[in-house]
């Protein structure tokens, strides 16, 4: 990978895209390229809860295996606690019950977010629908929404070859991004596993869920003037364009 780049303004980025489009892959590359960025993946947070057998994980497991979205209240609880522990939210904005109960945006106006580039972050997989997006608007205003687009036939092939390191969420692929030692994580040497939802049937259900929820979500961000679309058949084609765009906006 070429030299790292500096951000001059705080980037608050969301990646939106079909399952397997490369959100996790691009996130890993972005945090290497822009070391001031940190990332949170809602799917990784959920999988960690399932793995640890927490009450939330036990509730989420069947829904994830069916390829549906877990309830908004559940995901919000996870995301808010993660964003606050990273210091990206002020304590006054972290009352999840009040947020969920509030119908009007003025009930919980976001406090002005920090413009410090070190407060930059990427959210991979959250928000997934307009309700989640409206709740996030009240917590912290997002200033860049990247809509990643790749044809479904290409994606299906990738999923069949995907392997992950469960504790970190690091993603590998047996034809692209091959681990240095087969079946082992490059950093820890621990075993790689298949995700429970990476089978053809669940993948189709996840794609259907995405098709149903993504259009209104993208329209929401289009209206806010923060949407940017990038299309490509491979992550290698997409990454350089993504780096360039973020440098233009925040560098
Ligand atoms: P989540 O974990 O977010 O899954 P997803 O959206 O289905 O996306 P994926 O993680 O499968 O794909 P990705 O885009 O990250 O692709 P990747 O980089 O791995 O969510 C899982 C579940 O959690 C949901 O179904 C839902 O139940 C629940 N959930 C999560 N968030 C929620 C929310 N906000 N609300 C409610 N429920 C929520 O790439 C895929 C593969 O392709 C990899 O193997 C990669 O190595 C490979 N690859 C990437 N680029 C290339 C390339 N150029 N050539 C070949 N292979 C490539
Ligand atoms: Mg992912």
Fold blueprint:
Layout: E1 12-17, H1 23-33, E2 38-41, H2 42-52, H3 55-65, H4 72-85, H5 96-101, E3 121-124, H6 130-139, E4 144-149, H7 152-160, E5 162-165, E6 170-173, H8 200-224, E7 227-231, H9 235-250
Parallel strand pairs: 1-3, 1-4, 2-3, 4-7
Antiparallel strand pairs: 5-6
Helix pairs in contact: 1-9, 2-3
Question: Can you walk through the features of this model?
Answer:
This protein is an alpha/beta fold and 251 residues long. The chain contains 9 helices and 7 strands; from the N terminus they run E-H-E-H-H-H-H-E-H-E-H-E-E-H-E-H. It has helices at residues 23-33, 42-52, 55-65, 72-85, 96-101, 130-139, 152-160, 200-224, 235-250, and strands spanning 12-17, 38-41, 121-124, 144-149, 162-165, 170-173, 227-231. The strands form 2 sheets. The chain has a 5-stranded parallel sheet with strand order 2-3-1-4-7, sandwiched between helices. Helix 1 crosses helix 9 (235-250). The two termini are 18 Å apart. The model is unreliable at 103-108 (pLDDT under 50). The protein binds BIS(adenosine)-5'-pentaphosphate and magnesium ion (MG). BIS(adenosine)-5'-pentaphosphate binds at residues 17, 19-25, 42-43, 46, 63-64, 67-70, 75, 125-128, 132, 158, 162, 171-173, 176-177, 206, 234-236.
